[in-house]
Design a protein that fits this description.
Chain B: Keywords: Signal. The structure holds two protein chains of two kinds. By secondary structure, chain A is mainly beta. Chain A contains three helices and eight strands. In chain A, strands 1, 2, 3, 4, 5, 6, 7 and 8 form an eight-stranded antiparallel beta sheet that branches.
């Protein structure tokens, strides 16, 4: 647990500010036979079969759902759809909430590598000045996205509740959420080179 | 048939057999030409002290006595010669042996008292000619049986009770020889193909001080039932070992006089089983235990007093636990686990245990202390899953410290004889320094470290690879060095049935843990860390679902001085990280069986559905290991003080601090994720919080699809190479963060987020680690 939170923290804090994409030259590529690293294949997914809070109802009419049911189908669709992860953030003491809702998708790849590397040469002469250890994420050449989606909106409370149900039935008629936009992602992208992470 | 004089009988009989005059009736039962039958009644003896002296030091057994459990019962011994072999058959009466105190001369403390109830039987068959066929003698086809045994170990008025113990020895092709060892003559027992069967029906504690009737010790038939937990047990053990090889005993310890035991023992086709509701069982246990220089036993003295030392400059133990079952025997198969442990002295890094009388300084004059030092080199652990093997290779560990073992009692239920409340008697505070009820293991300044070189998959000489990083989720770090203090106190009986319950406080300081590390020691380090952990009312059980660890009420504080890149001491630091946790009802469960069949890169519960969705169907077999971690984070109800960072111990909080002045904590800028907690998000019961933050891990050794990144277009490697497959799933119903604060040393604390709520998460990472190609 410690390490999970820590690793998450490191990733979240480090990536935006400190990560730089680097193209590998041939010489660097030829050195990728070290023993201390790891080559990872597989997938990373968010709610690929739905989440654990809401079960799937039989239809898309919220008035017929029970308190622990929710479908995240596109308005007007007939088929029900599992919901993704929901993140809500409140930036004012008594304000409303920003919501990233229905986040889900499958990201699969072959050849994500992780190792520690000392950079003390190359990079057009910058490497010698840099002279520091970095965590190197070698990017897989192709990442496939499948069934990716998310919606951005605002709501008057952090937790989702069914506004079509009475409070006695686990709903909340006063609950409001307005989705501003939503997106779906499918396909594959090419990601080459490395992400180097280091403190500065 | 020859008759043998009584002198021979006296020589062969153990000390416990006092010479008895035969009455007329017994003499009449001696039936002439077919050897001698001897029936012994009484047989009681006592000694005020039995001493073992060596190099000026003395180990004393005080107040030793032995007697039949039932007055008037008798033992029968027959001596005969059959087929050219002397045959001594002994059927003993139920005995009671008592030792009032075990002491080392010169110390006012002692190891405690000991009593044993047992019945001894045996069949000794002796003939001339040892293993080499000339000197020595054969003990082939001899048997020794210890049955109906109960042991009581008493420490400061409390008892540890081992019940229902039996031990049977079957010696086949076994010989005893006098041989020339490296340090003189040795007695060598050649085990041939001998079998040892042992079982223990229960191990319990009696925390009612002294005897129910003062001065009248309890017996197995009339146990002390005053302690509410008297009937509970740590579990049952059963072993059936087939041993070969030899065991040599010579004179001369590590220095001066002493004993030297050289094991060269092989283990084959053996069984080991621990039973609670479920079982931990190795159905085919094989291996060896070898020490070339021997295990020495010495009595010695240093500035702290007298001690008994057990030392070995080399010891190699390897074992394969085949057919490993964890939980339900019918469907919980783990595969097999192999260990290869090499202990070796290297300069100041040595292997020894110095046993001293008396335990914890607050636990009276009795108990056991041990100064221990260990150095293990180039060892490995291997897991075989559906025929595929993986080695945690290059395991090294060394360290030293002091351990104490006592039976203790808390004063929480009121002051009573033998209890210790401590100077801080609040059991639910981190500063509590009294005792808990149970068997207490104290840890004092245990300075140690361990590291792995990495993984090898497929064969023991396969290239080293990473992958131990994937175990960091379970707080198993690829490398760790630490100083450990604290205690863990165990009580018999688990959450249900057998098992154990525990209270523990651990203080780890000056620690460096690697999140990832390469062969040169460079990686991502949690450097200069301290870690304080407190457990109350935890339990450990083996159920039909596997091993279940309940953390009870748990709170901890991990303070990482520097999150370093590169070298653990000199790498560049990202800053300081503090993680505080407060949990109630958290669990960790281990079970057999890995991920089974699953869909990678798509979705679907069948091969056809998976492939149709664009995924790849991977079947990782029915063996493997599964781990379920559930963390129930509890909200701190003490409130969120405005413009300040809460310093409450029992709170979930993450602090990242950067730009400290002179490395002093609190002088930099802090980001604080404050009072995070889980919830069941149940509209009907907002306080419900039992689902928690869950991490499920399936560990397998399995082939996976890999492409060669060094070749143009990353062509697929064929056949699929084996890898360390970790299928991880993080799921929770709701995680809440009360607020996110930013703190500046002069500007104070401001809040940037007044709440974060995450709901309905089911995040999966299905990764297989193979060497970088």
């Amino acid at each position: 647990m410690t390490s999970r939170l820590l690793a998450l923290c490191v990733m979240l804090l480090s990536l935006p500010a400190l990560a730089e994409m680097q193209a590998l030259d041939d010489e660097t590529l030829s050195q990728l036979n070290g023993q201390g690293g790891v080559y990872l294949s597989g997938e990373f997914s968010i709610n690929k079969d739905g989440g654990v809070l809401w079960s799937l109802p039989l239809n898309n009419d919220p008035a017929t759902w029970s308190a622990d049911q929710r479908s995240c189908a596109t308005p007007g669709a007939s088929a029900v759809e599992h919901c993704g992860l929901r993140i809500a953030v409140r930036s004012e003491a008594d304000g409303g909430w920003y919501v990233l809702d229905n986040m889900k998708g499958i990201f699969s790849f072959e050849g994500l590598t992780l190792r520690t590397r000392t950079i003390n040469d190359g990079f057009g002469g910058d490497g010698a000045n840099f002279n520091q250890d970095v965590l190197e994420f070698g990017l897989p050449s192709e990442v496939k996205f499948k069934d990716g989606s998310f919606a951005f909106g605002v709501a008057n409370q952090g937790g989702w509740q069914n506004s079509s149900l009475s409070q006695a039935n686990g709903g909340n008629p006063a609950y409001q959420q307005t989705n501003i936009f939503s997106a779906k992602i499918d396909g594959s992208i090419r990601m080459q080179g490395n992400v180097l992470i280091f403190p500065k | 048939m020859a008759r043998y004089p009584l002198l021979l009988l006296a020589l062969l009989s153990p000390l416990a057999q006092a010479m008895q005059a035969l009455d007329d009736q017994s003499l009449s039962a001696v039936s002439g030409r077919d050897g001698i039958s001897l029936q012994t009644t009484g047989g009681a003896w006592s000694a005020s002290s039995i001493d073992y002296g060596q190099d000026g030091q003395t180990l004393s057994l005080k107040g030793v006595s032995s007697q039949n459990q039932l007055l008037g019962s008798s033992s029968t011994t027959t001596i005969d010669v059959q087929d050219g072999r002397l045959h001594v058959q002994h059927s003993g009466a139920a005995q009671m042996l008592a030792i009032d105190n075990i002491e080392l001369a010169g110390s006012n403390k002692s190891f405690g008292a000991f009593r044993a109830f047992y019945t001894l039987g045996g069949s000794l068959k002796l003939s001339g000619g040892g293993a080499s066929g000339v000197s020595g003698f054969s003990v082939d086809d001899s048997q020794l049986s210890l049955s109906a045994a109960t042991f009581y170990y008493r420490d400061n008025g409390f008892d540890l009770i081992v019940q229902g113990l039996s031990f049977d020895t079957y010696l086949n092709n076994a010989y005893v020889d006098i041989v020339s060892g490296g340090s003189g003559q040795e007695v060598k027992l050649d085990l041939g193909s001998s079998r040892f069967v042992a079982s223990i029906a229960g191990i319990g504690l009696d925390l009612a001080h002294g005897d129910p009737i003062p001065g009248v010790p309890v017996t197995p038939g009339a146990p002390d039932l005053r302690d509410a937990n008297a009937g509970r047990s740590f579990g049952q053990l059963h072993m059936d070992l087939n041993l070969g090889g030899s065991l040599s005993i010579g004179s001369g310890g590590a220095s001066g006089e002493g004993l030297r035991i050289k094991p060269n023992i092989s283990i084959s086709n053996s069984l080991f089983q621990y039973q609670d509701e479920g079982v931990l069982r190795a159905e085919n246990f094989a291996g060896s235990l070898i020490s070339n220089s021997g295990i020495t036993l010495d009595l010695a003295q240093d500035g702290q007093g007298s001690y008994a030392q057990l030392a070995f400059s080399d010891l190699k133990f390897n074992a394969t636990l085949g057919g490993l079952i964890m939980g339900n025997p019918s469907n919980q198969k783990l595969g097999s686990l192999a260990v290869d442990l090499n202990f070796l002295d290297q300069g100041a890094r040595q292997n020894w245990v110095k046993l001293r009388p008396g335990g914890d300084s607050n636990s009276g004059l009795k108990g056991i202390s041990a100064d221990a030092s260990w150095n293990m080199v180039d060892s490995s652990l291997a897991l075989t899953d559906n025929g595929n093997s993986m080695w945690f290779s290059g395991l090294r560990t060394h360290g030293s410290g002091q351990f104490t073992l006592d039976i203790t009692k808390s004063c929480a239920a009121g002051v009573s004889a033998g209890c210790y409340a401590g100077s801080n008697s609040d059991l639910n505070s981190g500063g509590y320094n009294g005792h808990f009820d149970g068997l207490r293991l104290g840890l004092n300044n245990v300075v140690g470290s361990y590291s792995f070189d990495g993984l090898r998959v497929g064969s023991a000489d396969a290239p080293l690879q990473g992958g131990t990083e994937l175990l960091v989720l379970m707080e198993i770090f690829p490398a760790y060095d630490f100083t450990l203090n604290g205690q863990i106190t165990l009580q018999p009986g688990g959450f249900s049935g057998d098992g154990l319950r525990y209270n523990a406080d651990f203080y780890i300081s000056e620690a460096n843990a690697a999140v990832t590390v390469d062969e040169n020691g460079r990686g991502l380090w949690l450097a200069g860390s301290s870690y304080e952990m407190h457990y109350r009312d935890g339990s450990l059980d083996v159920s039909n679902n596997g091993v279940e660890l309940r953390k009870g009420t748990y709170w901890s504080k991990l303070d990482v001085g520097d999150l370093r890149w590169g070298d653990r001491h000199t790498g560049t630091s990202l800053g300081r990280l503090v993680l505080k946790r407060f949990e109630q009802g958290s669990t960790l469960a281990l079970s057999s069986g890995g991920a089974g069949a699953l869909c990678v890169g798509g979705s679907g519960s069948s091969s056809a559905a998976c492939v149709a969705s664009g995924g790849r169907w991977e079947d990782r077999g029915d063996e493997g290991l599964s781990v379920k971690l559930k963390n129930v984070f509890v909200r701190d109800g003490s409130g969120n003080p405005a413009n300040a960072v809460s310093s409450n111990d029992k709170r979930n909080q993450i602090i990242l601090e950067t730009d400290r002045v002179g490395g002093v904590n609190g002088t930099g800028s802090q980001l604080v994720v404050d009072n995070f907690h889980t919830s069941d998000a149940n509209p009907g019961n907002p306080a419900a919080n039992s689902y928690g933050f869950n991490v499920d891990l399936n560990l397998d050794v399995a082939p996976t699809r890999v492409c060669d990144k060094s070749a143009a277009g990353c062509p697929v490697v064929s056949p699929d190479p084996l890898g360390f497959a970790v299928n991880a799933r993080v799921h929770f119903k709701e995680m809440n963060i009360d607020r996110v604060q930013h703190v500046h040393p002069t500007g104070g604390a401001v809040t940037s987020m007044y709440g974060v709520k995450l709901q309905n998460a089911d995040i999966r990472a299905n990764l297989t680690a193979t060497p970088i190609n």
